[in-house]
Model the fold of this input.
Amino acid sequence: MAEHREFFYRRLHSLLGVIPIGVFLIQHLVVNHFAVYGEESFNKAAGFMHDLPFRLALEIVIIFLPILFHAILGVYIVFVAKNNTRRYGYFRNWMFYLQRVTGIVTFVFIAWHVWETRVQIGMGNAELDYNLMENILSNPFMFWFYIVGVISTTFHFANGLWSFMVSWGITQSPKSQKIATYATLVVFLAISYIGVRALIQFAYGV
Done:
């Protein structure tokens, strides 16, 4: 019974990592990318998301609760996982190891990002706009912290997408898994570019 429950939790963990968390990640990075087209474009895009009907309820149900479940179970998986990269240093074993490492980095990054852009704003009079992100990322330490955090997050999602397709029986043959590896690599590079490009715009205005 316990094994069936853990199997269910891990399947749910995998599913939530793609839907809705992965979908939200891409949407969030795309909104941030509007900064490349100027301060006004970003503020309009951010304002549209902020003014959505039932925004708080949607955020709690679709974003915060799934992320919390995914993070808690993910930390558990990290501590019980048996990594064999020294003995079996093949590609997928390293991807397995990096998935766990980036999971921890992503958890820390998201917690700080939410604190900095949501909690602190809620306690003060600041607004989540272009100027806020510009002020945060003008600090070189914070800029590189965000660079590492974004790349860690996009890798964790893209590699998790590969695992999702395997665990849900979408890619079963070695050939289909190899194709999925290239496809998720493209996903990783594409959304990493979108995220990093916005950070550069906020930090340096270019």
User: Anything to note?
Assistant: The longest helix spans residues 91-123. The chain has a mean pLDDT of 91. The chain is about 80% helix and 0% strand. The helical segments are 2-18, 21-33, 39-50, 55-80, 91-123, 130-137, 140-167, 174-204.
